[in-house]
Amino acid sequence: MEFPYSRLRRRPDVEAENLQPYDATDLLLVERALAAGVPGGEIAVIGDEYGAITLALTAAGLAGIRVHQDLATGRRALDLNAAELGLTGYEPRELDASLLSGARLVLLQLPKSLAELEETADAVARWAAPDVVLVAGGRVKHMTLAQNDALARSFAVVQAQRAARKSRLIVASEPRDAADPPPFPVAQQHDGLTLVAHGGAFAGAKLDIGTRVLLEVLGVRRSQLLSDRSAPASDAQTSAATSAPGGAVNHVVVDLGCGTGALAVSYAIAHPEARVIATDRSAAAVASARATAAANGVADRVEVMHDDAASALPAGIADVVLLNPPFHLGTSVHTGAATRLFEAAARILRPEGALLTVFNSSLAYRAELTRLVGPTEQLHRTSKFTVTRSIRR
Predict the structure, then answer these.
(1) Rounded to whole angstroms, how far apart are CA atoms 392 and 146?
(2) pLDDT digit string (tens) for 177-223?
(3) Are 183 and 122 contacting, i.e. CB atoms less than 8 angstroms apart?
(4) What is the spatial distance between Cα 337 and Cα 15, in angstroms, rounded to a whole number?
(5) Which has the closest alpha carbon to 340: 257, 259, 260?
(6) Residue 284 is inside which H or E element, if any?
(7) End-to-end C-alpha distance for the chain, whole angstroms
(8) What domains appear along the chain, each with residue ranges and CATH number?
(9) Cis bond before residue 12 (omega within 30° of 0)
(10) Are 22 and 44 in contact (CB under 8 A)?
(11) Which DSSP helix (H) or strand (E) runs through 53?
């Protein structure tokens, strides 16, 4: 009986006609695994976005497959799809020895980032069985020879297979001795701020342009982040705050989609009285943000959460939300991810709280921010980016 791929869904991730929960690469990886005859307990799956690989193999009778998904949305979609199909028996893991120890076959959906691929290949060579075979696949239009080079840094033999259904597999074997220390995470200094990044974190250890622009705006006093229509800064802070030891007043700031934590950590450094929460759906970003907070001495004041669109946070918790939203979903340009984050900001902001958003000026998000959050004004504009402040109705 063929696996019912058509029954898979992306939820809770964005769903649209041009966004599918599986592709031909998933099918090729499943076919390769079934032909290999490796027991489920010796198979690890990495980058299975919504469970197409894991669930197809589970449905074929392979038990104990270990799976790592970077995105919180992917993890929830896998569980929801499994429940819909009545499947159990896979084992979620982080990208570490618990995922790869003893694995003889690793199936990988090729990531967009070469750094993420390099970190993943190193992890497989470092922790998997000595005779492990890594089978990586992707859509031909997104594949490059640089991916072969990244795999070759961790494997002595790298062989590209014949393309089929507009997808291609690359088979890597004979793992090389792992370097010590590992190649990731990496760190970089930016005007006194240390950014730490794992391979899968957006922009790596660099400070992306949009974040830099928003940091410039955050150089103003915190009271200026609130609307002139709201209560005076001291009253507004007190209304949503709890008293801290010594009479200091805490205010809650959420960095929504925090990446490597540049905004959250910078805010925590500048405002030691604040409670700062950083949240991202990417496990690589979360690990990076935690490392960034530790590197800058604020790990005790920045709480980092692996979560989708702040779903674990209560409504009305935040005085200020900081947001540099993505405009890609995987390899597709799609503004749905930003819309979900605008909606999340509206939910977690207290009345009269402020959302500070930076975005590519061509995207013209101002009307949508006004509709979803509240009155929105432009605070700053460069040739490429716009920073707005939206006040929660």
Answers:
(1) 46
(2) 998 999 999 999 998 999 999 999 999 999 999 999 999 998 865 55
(3) yes
(4) 10
(5) 257
(6) helix 283-295
(7) 53
(8) 5-175 (3.40.50.150), 186-391 (3.40.50.150)
(9) yes
(10) no
(11) helix 52-59
